[in-house]
Amino acid sequence: MRFRQTRGLLEPTAILWMVVGWVGFALLPWYGIEDGFFGLSWLFDGYPFDSKFAPALVLVLKGEKIWLAPLGFLLAAPLLLWGRNKSDPFFGRVLIIIGAAGFGWLLFQGFAIGLHGWQFSWLNSLFGDLGDRQFGMGYGALLVSGAFLFLLTLGIAARGAVGGDVFVVSSIGFVVVVVSIFIFMPILMMLANAMQTDDGGYSLVAFLAKLFSSRLWSLACLAGGSRCGVAWNSLLLAVLVGLLTMFLGLVFALVVTRTGFRYGKLLRALTVLPIITPAFVIGLAIILLFGLSGTVTQSVAGVFGIQPTRWVYGLPGLLIAQVLAFTPIAFLVLIGVVEGVSPSMEEASQTLRASRWQTFWTVSLPLMRPGLANAFLLGFIESMADFGNPLVLSGNYDVLSTEIFFAIVGAQNDAALAAILALVLLGFTLGAFYAQRFWIGRRSYTTVTGKGDAGVHPRLPDGLTRALYVIAGLWTAFTVLVYAVIFYGSFVRLWGVDQSLTLQHYKKAFSVGWNEFGIHWSGSAWSSFWTTMEIALISAPLTAGIGLLTAYLLVRQNFRGKNAFEFATMLSFAIPGTVIGVSYIIAFNVPPIELTGTGIILVLSFIFRNMPVGVRAGVASMSQIDRSLDESSLTLGANSWQTFRRVILPLLRSAMLAALVYSFVRAMTAISAVIFLVSARYDLSTSYIVGRVENNEYGIAIAYSTVLIVVMLVVIGLMQLVVGSRNIGRRGIQKGDGGWSVRTNVSLPATPGGQTTIAGAG
């Protein structure tokens, strides 16, 4: 939305945020997010006059929290602008002062009160002895902080920032604040321990000694030694995984979209299977196949007379497992990019007598460069941050993520070492990020414009098509084999000892009974299953929404600090889930933002851990959409919010589906972060499965994983139906008995109440 030069009593947007702020200040509890998924016990316990759950206004009037009074005065201050024109410089200045002062004072009073009273003596002199500690802020504080934030962005827009566009300025402000609180603050608090010594002091010498230790940077393996440093191990593995996942993701994207493959939907489902499986379950299946006593190993040894070895433990096994697990991410990113390449450009190349191979190599593939770069980056980062596969398969091949875990929970209990390892890992991922940007360069990859196009992708070269089928077929067969082992293992009574089939694992985990109250979910896994579903279904749309909004700001808007803004959005993805979990415990275990033990902290960790996938998928797809579509919409009178919702989002269906699917399945299968954040009340599927593995109950663990796979496939199918598919061409290509035919499908506006569709075949 943009400011219009009209005069009224008071800007409606300012009134809206005043009302929101006063609802939080006068009606909702200022403290008390501590139990229940949304911390709603205040609705039933002493609200609104109990001091623990009372609104800020009640606390001020009772004289208990007098330092909250300035917030009320600031919420009423926008009335000073009564009758002022939005173009008046005074209007913007006042809102900026109100928003900044209110937001700043809210944060200051929250952190100025410690567990034992005021942190500063002058506050004790000003307000008197506190008498109690700080409590975690509740929904009243949340609404008031939001009101001040958006009053601030309204004032900044009134001063002409980003063309005075309120939607864009507010979006930037919102993303900056939430990223700062839920990414930067926990990570900085975690990394603050990097220079800490065992006695609680700080030492630069100790920091440098750990940072440049031979354990990290040794190259002994190149000189005949047994091991290289952990840092080099992680870098080599991540580069190989990034390249292989990018290649396989492109292969599957081309097979599904460019070859006329009849079973594309089935291939999509098989490709997505690894991403919806807990990582350690894939590792366990690989061990059952290729371990020392594995089925494949023993079969090969028997046929060829070869002595079985433990080759699968280390780099080979890790590479297989991670490529299998992370290829779907590359596929989900690349399929939208491959679909988005303009058919008219490819047809123009063939009109100029280029061969199909030349067209693909010189036109199609270069236009896919943003997607290829993003696919490599995500594969690289995922490999760096992966925890489950190395935990099962690393052997003597140590990597950074597991070293961080053992530095925190192992016998050494060295939080400073864990922070230093995280810094090294962050350096590698940021290096990959900037290498990706350099490779893309400043070229234009726009292919989707407001102009019509032929809508027919030329056929790929026959040799390339055959190669794609072979590669995709072999990898699909391997994937099916791995999942056959997983499925079969869920029915085996005791793998390797008693191979008889049984349903006891499913009965123990998912039995259902009846009692006088109705259905009784008596199985031991039901509690963690329903909790996981609830949290995943809440976090997935929020993750996709914030990710695509951020991508829109990065691709479509220019503003100061844009590079730092993009860096911040990728930071959480560059840090292992282990570090995210520990940093969240450090940051949100004490007031004023006290979330430990609630479901909210799990939702937040999933949102900001998985948000970069939505960002990168959105950036890759939006880079292909011409800005003239936005400009046309704005010229016709739509504001930026309407343009984003009605023009941009419909063209981002592939990116939206990728973000939804990825964030949902990650919430269902994540382990590294949530292992620190789960509680007795909010136990998740992965922590339950890990518990069964630790108790050697592999059958139950695999049975639970099988159920999760089926459930997630169903939910992903429903997401596909809800989101739909993007249709940016005018014709589709079909193969019949008489050869290839073209079907045209053009929608033209006819009347205000409908549309005219022209269809034909030739």
From TrEMBL:
UniProt KW keywords: Cell membrane, Membrane, Transmembrane, Transmembrane helix, Transport
UniProt KW Transmembrane keyword: yes
Membrane-traversing stretches: 12-33, 66-82, 94-115, 135-154, 166-192, 235-257, 269-291, 311-338, 359-381, 415-435, 467-491, 535-555, 567-587, 599-619, 655-678, 698-723
Major subcellular location class: membrane
Domain (ABC transmembrane type-1) ranges: 231-434, 529-719
Membrane among keywords: yes
UniProt xrefs under InterPro entries: MetI-like, MetI-like_sf
Entry membrane topology: Multi-pass membrane protein
Pfam families: BPD_transp_1
Homology family: Belongs to the binding-protein-dependent transport system permease family.
Protein name, per record: ABC transporter permease
Source organism (scientific name): Mesorhizobium newzealandense
